[in-house]
Amino acid sequence: MFGLFNTVPSISVTELQERVKNTIHLLDVRTPGEYRSGHILKAKNVPLNKIDDYKGSLTEDVYVICQSGMRSKKAAKILQKKGYNVVNIRGGMSQWTGQIRGGK
């Protein structure tokens, strides 16, 4: 069992579909190429290798998504250590059935 500081809260893509109806901070940590091939409308591309440079609000939840949920979990742990309230998206884009857009 993990200690309190090792666990990152997570939600399903179904729950995310409800939450994106409101204003949320959603980071897509896939590569720029993957992001351009299709991403969630409100998602900002911050590739995993650049996640350390992310500067956002420490008072608002940050949602993190990747292709399957592995990279987003890594990114979430990094952000959590920096003091962010992070929520990982289980299943990632491979399970997302909502609208996506291509390009930047």
Automatic annotation (TrEMBL):
InterPro entries, A to Z: GlpE_sulfurtransferase, Rhodanese-like_dom, Rhodanese-like_dom_sf
CDD domains: RHOD
Ranges where the Rhodanese domain occurs: 20-101
Record-annotated membrane-spanning stretches: none
Pfam families on file: Rhodanese
Protein name: Rhodanese-like domain-containing protein
